[in-house]
Amino acid sequence: MELLGYIMAIIIGISLGLIGGGGSILAVPMLAYLFAFDEKVATAYSLFIVGAGALVGGLRQHKNQNVDWKMAFTFGLPAIVGVWSIRHFLVPILPDVLFTIGGLELTRRMGMLGLFALLMLLAAYSMISSKAHKGVKTKAKFNLPLIATEGIAVGAITGLVGAGGGFLIIPALVVLADLEIKKAIGTSLIIIAMKSLTGFLLGDARSMPIDWQFLILISALVISGIFVGTYLSNFIDGKRLKKGFGYFILIMAVFIFIMEFFVITNLTT
């Protein structure tokens, strides 16, 4: 299973390099099911892995002048507040059982991974839908309060489930900041790197023991996959692949729901 996990880390990187996103949302399932980490560790480690991969991708986009640094900090700083607040204050105090309805217990693992699976469904729709991320210009003016509010909200979601949330950030940058789609994608990667790495380093790294050797190895595999994916993008139609990958994420979301709410629940009762 661990060998499959290492292979999955490379696949995550290839996806990031090939289609500019999507792969990072597989980090939590990889850590939870292939490396058998609990939900707290899986979401924490995912923040570091996603952040490292996004940083490499974002710096490559910067070379192509596809990063709006002013917007990266305008959206990213509130997002950092959201991530840090959730990882530092909320996650450590979540009880093992969130609540009970009748004879059904909703555990912390079910809640966190169930929410993550829901996020995967939204990401899958974003990748499959032909209407997503068209980058149509709007007449909306720069709206700082809305940008900051969405930054905090996206950061909070990232902190809770360990996903980058690029599919939420990119439309916000297009609509609220009126960025062109390529610049929105590049800026999104920098925002993801900022909030994920800062949230991990200021939150989880200070409150739990960290296996740095494992994290650096997985991150190195993801980054190597990014370079492979970037090279393959010269020969493969990324748009078609993106839709196919969206269906794969959809299947993975359904798998998580089944595992957490039916299989594991039945095994523990």
What's the layout of helices and strands?
Blueprint (H helix, E strand, L loop, with lengths): L1 H18 L7 H8 L4 H25 L5 H22 L6 E5 L2 E4 H21 L15 H18 L4 H11 L4 H22 L9 H21 L5 H31 L1
Antiparallel strand pairs: 1-2
Could you describe the 3D structure shown?
The chain has about 270 residues and is mainly alpha-helical. Helix 3 packs across helix 8. Strands 1-2 form a two-stranded antiparallel ribbon. It has ten helices and two strands, in the order H-H-H-H-E-E-H-H-H-H-H-H.
Which key phrases capture this entry?
mainly alpha, 269 residues, 3% strand, two-stranded antiparallel ribbon
Question: What is the mean predicted local confidence, pLDDT?
Answer: 85
Unreliable stretches covering 5 or more consecutive residues: 135-139
Counting helices, strands and paired strands, the structural category is mainly alpha
Tell me the number of strands: 2
Overall shape: globular
Task: Compose a concise summary of this entry.
The protein has 269 residues and is mostly helical. Helices cover 73% and strands 3% of the residues.
